[in-house]
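Morning run. Coffee first, then this:
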Amino acid sequence: MKIGIYSGINVGSVKDSTIEYIGVDQGVYHLYQQGITPVIAIGDMDSIENEQILQDINIQRYSSIKDDTDTALAIQYAIQKGYGAIDLYGVTHRRIDHFMAVLCLLEKYQDISITIYDEWNKIFVLKPGQHYLAKDQYHYFSIFAFDESVVTLKDCHYPLDHYILKRNDPLCVSNQMNEEYAIVENSRPVLCIQSIS
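And here it is:
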C-alpha cells in the first residue's frame, strides 16, 4: 500500500495522481494546484497564505519548535497507518540541511520503500539483493553505501565485480546504463540516485 507526501518545496507534478497524499505545510498548496486534496495536512501551516484550502482537510498542526521536521512527522504518520511505500516530493533544493535530514530518514526507515522525486532525480534505497534498474528518463545512476557493501554493477558504462564500497567512497557516482537497464547487486542496503542530467 503506497501513499504520497508532498513537502514545502515545489518540485513539479507528482508521478502518480491515483494514490492518496499527505500535504506537509506548503505542500498542501502544491497538491491543491494539481487538483489533489490531501487526506491530511501536517505541519505548523505558517507558510499557507490562503487558509481556505485547509477548510475541508484534516489537520495535524504542530509547533514550529519541535524535535522532528514536518516531513519526518509525515513519514511517521504514514508508517503508523500501515503504508509500506511512500513517494516523497518537495524535499530537495534550497535547504540542504533539511535534505540531509531526509537522507537520514531513508537510512532509518530502510524497511519502508521511500522514493524521493523532483524534476531531475529519483532517490531511493536498494535493499540487499540483485536489482534491474530501469533507465526510464534517467541518464545517470549513482550508488552510495550506508555501511560497507559488496557491489557488482553490470550492463553499464562502468561495471564493477564484487567491489567493496565504503560509506566514504564516491567511486559509484555518475554511471550510465548501456541499454534500458543496469543490474545492481549489493550485499548491504545502498542509496541509489537516478538523474536526468
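The chain has a mean pLDDT of 93. Good start to the day.
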